[in-house]
Amino acid sequence: MFYWGEPSPSNEPVIGEVVSGYPAQVSGFQKGDRILAVNGKAVTTWEQAADEIHKSPGKTLDIKYSHKSPTGETQKSVALVPKRDPRENKGLIGISPSIEMKPVPFKQSVKSAYDQCINLSLLTVRYLGEAIKKSIVTRAKPELELAGPIGIVSVIANVVKEGAQAMVSLIAIISLNLGLFNLFPIPLLDGGHIFLYFLEGLYRKPLNKAAVRTANIVGATFLIMIFLFATTQDLTRLKTTFWK
């Protein structure tokens, strides 16, 4: 974060992402297009453009925008009808603003990185806890989205196209999740060793070797089951993508 800065939505009326299936994508909008006017009203900020779109759900809008291409910059106009967001009763055409990186002082970047690590760890633990709780209460198959080696390679292949920053962020997230998982009290993992050492300190004597061996076998079986479950999900996602 200190090197690249902190990502923040830009207030420039420049499209950062286009959502598939929404009016903007159907009408031909692309990432990098700049909105110039909505219904003849010139806009100079993202907020102005968003206000005009939000207040017109289900109504035809004429949007003028500029598009840059290798051959130069051209201005285009298109008529579209924003979808109505049932939750907030506002119009949406499926676009989001571009992201700009704002410089962050070193101390603030350290604090922000620390907060992100804590929040991501809590989010992961909460996700796993809710999935396990739901499976116990309803006795249904755990609704977990895990990625094994195949899934991770697929994600990396997509992220590499986004540049070095996205790649470093992905490495950080994977490292954080692996470190967190390694601290779970599962035999064979560091968390399992810490738990066994805690029991030895609690009883003030070495644990029974047969019990430790059994615990390690159970832990290894559990890890293999997780690996197979994640790989199965990877193959299912790969099959679904291939046959689309």
Structure explained in plain terms:
The chain has 244 residues and is an alpha+beta fold. 51% of the residues lie in helices and 19% in strands. It has a four-stranded antiparallel beta sheet, covered by helices on one side. It has a two-stranded antiparallel ribbon with strand order 1-10. The protein starts with 5 loop residues before the first strand and ends with a helix. The model has no long low-confidence stretch (mean pLDDT 86).
Briefly, what is this?
Helix content is 51%, strand content 19%. With 244 residues, the chain is of the alpha+beta class. The model has no long low-confidence stretch (mean pLDDT 86).
Tell me the layout of helices and strands.
Layout: E1 6-9, E2 15-18, H1 23-26, E3 34-38, E4 41-42, H2 46-54, E5 61-69, E6 72-80, E7 83-85, E8 90-92, E9 95-97, E10 99-102, H3 106-138, H4 149-160, H5 164-182, H6 190-203, H7 209-242
Antiparallel strand pairs: 1-10, 2-9, 3-4, 3-5, 5-6, 7-8
